[in-house]
Amino acid sequence: MNARILPVAAALTLLALPRALSAQVDRLAGRVDDRTRAAVTAIVDSARASGVPATPLINKALEGASKGASGDRIATAVRALAGDLGAARSALGGAATEPELVAGAAALRAGAEPAYLARLRSTYPRESLVVPLAVTADLVARGVPADTATQTVLTLMHEGVQDADLVAFRQSVERDVALGAPAGGTAAALAGAVVGGQSLPTQPGPAATRPRKP
Amino acid sequence: MTTAGSGEDLLIARVSEELRRPVEASPGFDARVMAAVRRAPPPLPARVWAWLREPRALAVSPLGGFAAAAVVAALLVAGTWVVVRTTRAPGEMGEAAAPAARGASSVVTFVLVAPRARTVALAGDFDGWDRTRLPMRRGVSGLWTLDVPLAPGRYQYAFVVDGRQFVADPSAPRAVGDDFGAPNSVVTVSGDAPRGAGGSL
Questions:
Q1: Which of A9, A73, A118, B70 keeps 20 to 30 A from A177, CA to CA?
Q2: Looking at residue A21, what is its pLDDT?
Q3: What is each CA distance from B194 to A124, A159, A213, B130, in whole angstroms?
Q4: ipTM of this complex prediction, to 2 decimal places
Q5: Has residue A123 got a pLDDT over 80?
Q6: Would you state the pLDDT for residue B190?
Q7: Contacts of B80 in chain A (CB under 8 A)
């Protein structure tokens, strides 16, 4: 495409977009070149048609721009995220909130199955699944096998464990893994301890601002 | 047997009497003992403590002074980056704080120890990955902090050191995947109603 035509095409595309989406795409102004902006806008527009929110996609493009990535790489990353968000929406349903979709997409990218997301939603149709999905993704990122992570989170939720305790559970797993324990075994053992009635250490409170070693 | 027994009793009585007799020291004995005690060196811990407390002058050449200063400076700047995040309720923000986001339910304190950094900023999903919008405040020993009010959700972020280098939070969960060659960290903010137990597995 001719370099002179690109700004005109991008402007026309913006004019044709809904106002909310246009406001999101406007955030790309001055951050990416016109060609990348047009490509991202097309992806976002297409994703929105299937119920995928625009904000996470624009954020991904802005992340790439901030890190100096090429336009092609930015478009590839945005497209991949759109796919994950779309899969998360399919699994979690049309009523899923944007934070749930973001967390669900992260869980899927980590290796969780769409059926896991669907099971969570069907079991807890009215509760927010942001933290359970985020903890699932974090556990897998820490080395816990995906099936162990999903089963562990399901078990803890079945026991009525609240969001703060799920986060504390994740922190306990991270701590033990950092000390050399195998990730999968640690997660299962700690979950067994919770189910058995033992409490996990809580998060540091406001006063606990001491530096931690990485 | 009786006569022999009486003789033994008499001997024992005399020995006993001799042993009970007080020993008379020669004149000046006490003074000589005390003088010897005073001449004896004090125990080692007492000597060390006295040496430490005694003021003394140190002679250092300029070169030696520069070397000592360099060692101290090296110790200060050789620390690794350490990051702390704590979550607080809104209204408990410190001096270095970002504007409250819409729907923010928690204040997350981001802390980075980067003694050699000239500037540190926070960039993430919550600020459009702007490298300058959320500058962190430098404290003692290269401790950079920033309070950011966040709405419930899962956010990716990284620290921007000296305006160009993206540094992941080593104490936070790492985001899965690395789209742009610089890994991100993740912070999850919960602010939802309690969840009930149950459900079928």
A1: A118
A2: 73
A3: 12, 13, 32, 34
A4: 0.79
A5: yes
A6: 82
A7: 213-214
Judge: B184–A63 Cβ closer than 8 Å, yes or no.
Answer: yes
pTM: 0.68
Give the minimum alpha-carbon distance from B149 to chain A in angstroms, rounded to a whole number. 14
Nearest CA in chain B to A60: B125
pLDDT exceeds cutoff 80 at A20? no
| Count of CB atoms situated within 10 Å of the CB of B132 | 11
CB A108 within 8 A of CB A84: yes
Q: How far is Cα B47 from Cα B186, in angstroms, rounded to an integer?
A: 56
- Find residues 104-133 of chain A whose CB sits inside 8 Å of chain B: 106, 109-110, 123-124, 127-128, 130-131, 133
Contact A133, A171 (CB under 8 A): no
Q: Which of A114, A118, A198 lies closest to A156, judged by CA?
A: A198
∠ at Cα B46 (B40, B51), nearest 5°?
A: 105
B93 in contact with chain A, both atoms CB, cutoff 8 A? no
Third-level CATH fold of B83-189 = Immunoglobulin-like (2.60.40)
Of A213 and A106, which is predicted with more confidence? A106
Location of structure tokens 């809104």? B90
**B46 exposure class (CB count in 10 Å sphere: 0-12, 13-18, 19+):** exposed
Mean pLDDT for the stretch of residues A148-173: 90
Residue of B nearest to A128 (CA): B192
- The kind and range of the H/E element at B82 are none
**Averaged confidence pLDDT in chain A:** 84
CA B122/CA B168 separation, integer angstroms:
10
Residues in chain A: 214
